[in-house]
Amino acid sequence: xxxxxxxxxxxxxxxxxxxxxxxxxxxxxxxxxxxxxxxxxxxxxxxxxxxxxxxxxxxxxxxxxxxxxxxxxxxxxxxxxxxxxxxxxxxxxxxxxxxxxxxxxxxxxxxxxxxxxxxxxxxxxxxxxxxxxxxxxxxxxxxxxxxxxxxxxxxxxxxxxxxxxxxxxxxxxxxxxxxxxxxxxxxxxxxxxxxxxxxxxxxxxxxxxxxxxxxxxxxxxxxxxxxxxxxxxxxxxxxxxxxxxxxxxxxxxxxxxxxxxxxxxxxxxxxxxxxxxxxxxxxxxxxxxxxxxxxxxxxxxxxxxxxxxxxxxxxxxxxxxxxxxxxxxxxxxxxxxxxxxxxxxxxxxxxxxxxxxxxxxxxxxxxxxxxxxxxxxxxxxxxxxxxxxxxxxxxxxxxxxxxxxxxxxxxxxxxxxxxxxxxxxxxxxxxxxxxxxxxxxxxxxxxxxxxxx
Amino acid sequence: xxxxxxxxxxxxxxxxxxxxxxxxxxxxxxxxxxxxxxxxxxxxxxxxxxxxxxxxxxxxxxxxxxxxxxxxxxxxxxxxxxxxxxxxxxxxxxxxxxxxxxxxxxxxxxxxxxxxxxxxxxxxxxxxxxxxxxxxxxxxxxxxxxxxxxxxxxxxxxxxxxxxxxxxxxxxxxxxxxxxxxxxxxxxxxxxxxxxxxxxxxxxxxxxxxxxxxxxxxxxxxxxxxxxxxxxxxxxxxxxxxxxxxxxxxxxxxxxxxxxxxxxxxxxxxxxxxxxxxxxxxxxxxxxxxxxxxxxxxxxxxxxxxxxxxxxxxxxxx
Lengths: 453, 318
Prior knowledge:
Chain A is an alpha/beta fold. Chain A contains 13 helices and 18 strands.
């Protein structure tokens, strides 16, 4: 793991601001891991805020809700922040936020009482979370109800507030400003999973959020590395762990290893070692889904970079084109050369400002010409920087060579499938080789070939 | 905003290191060694360094032009090879010796394999081995230290090999470089200064140098004396090209193992071979041949010293 230049100071003190809903939103039919949704509305239909407008017939998917009220303009191919292009439902906003949900819209929220919450069964909580279209908001976008339903019993719930991606501060601001709500959300997940231990994991560069949590649950965070031993015995009901701010500290597998001292076996999932990890923003969405019946139609996005005069943390309706977010943080100081949705280590560079915010969008990062400069690729000098950096213990330089020669069997022997795509090998490579990219390709090819590869 | 955004795959940040930055910083770390060499052996040492470096760069350029590859003579790697080769030569070498060595190092030692990163053997040591085999007379005619009138003197190790008792040479002499030898190997103080810089900057790790030097020390202590466990281990460490080899030649990225475990194996191998050649071989000095032999073993070391991948038990590797 490596300490990166963080650039979080740009937005770390920017409280969450609400961005006005745009004139038109574009809601891609794929915003989750699993089966792509089919639209439930047609062009020219009238839709309400929070109305379910797309769903699928499958076990793994997450429904999509309208983030404004108005009229469906079209269902068309549209830029997608991760997939490049994807069918999206375009809705013209009438600006009225009309809705049938009595708990909405914002400002007049009426959360359920503790009594009502107490009467909910785990199944009811799961179904509320599923109906609200909540997905993992840390980036992987796995529909969250699945992680409330592990096929094996688990004993530990880890709340991931590490936020190790440089530039991003949206999870930090949420943890700081919505601490109580997050704790209520944790309570819901705890009830579903019936776990003994809850651990909130956070990096040491977020002292204010650590303090907020400590005040809210009345016990101190422990600092990792200080005489902590892996332990499944009884602990505090909710425990906090402070981790060193290093990348990729917030990776699910790294969190489990660093906090609990155990590794998720290759090809297995965290629940195989009795752990479920939820991102802190997901926990907040789960709170909203259950307490307010509010579907996931808005989220906090960090809009940042040296090109912007006023970088901010914005509460944005899903489907808002990123051009609106950038305009809200302007005027531009410099011409951006590259615009990234997500963090700069794992996010995707955008070709169009029409790409909308989706459920997993945590950041919009604008890099200037100097920051975005692409260096020419050179020969590998076997310096081993990638080998030392790789949190998965791989030899990225060798997988890269195998991948470039399309030797998939060799790539498989080098255990390319265990790559977590964190991007560190690329970050440290002095020869500027596109290691991560070629390893991702090798992963796809090896997975395609199955045992034959 | 113009719509000509740059699109590339993640990650979008870089730590700003580059191959040429690393190469030139290694060259920089060798400056004190070069300065010490010139101070100890006079201007003729400077002449050898310049000749070897210039020949390396020119050869690299010519090879790249002939093979129609990108000319990268300024990336520092050819300069580094030239300097390291010069450090392995005596100061009184005739002018064509460093030139011939540099041409061999670059053309045969490096470019024939495909250039930077592709070679099997350390190019500077390949050049030295070539010169040693071709013109041993010139390669072993050493200048006496601090005597610029070119009095030839044997190295302490050579004297020992021939059965002479060592007189008038203290550990301090060895440490500061008051002894006969190659330009870059004599001043241990300057070598350690350069090595400390590279270790602190993280461009080399301790694994190879530490295991290499301590293996030579232990082996020489055990078997280097008249009986067992009576060898002069400090002399073994300070003399010859061990310090130069351990910090600057054995740590060559291209020709040494990738993982720390592999580097430990590599260092111990270098140490054993160096000590064996010194004690029982035909040459007084063994560092360069030891490193070359271990270079050849690097692929197989790499194969058996992989890191444990996250999520695998060690059993999975058996």
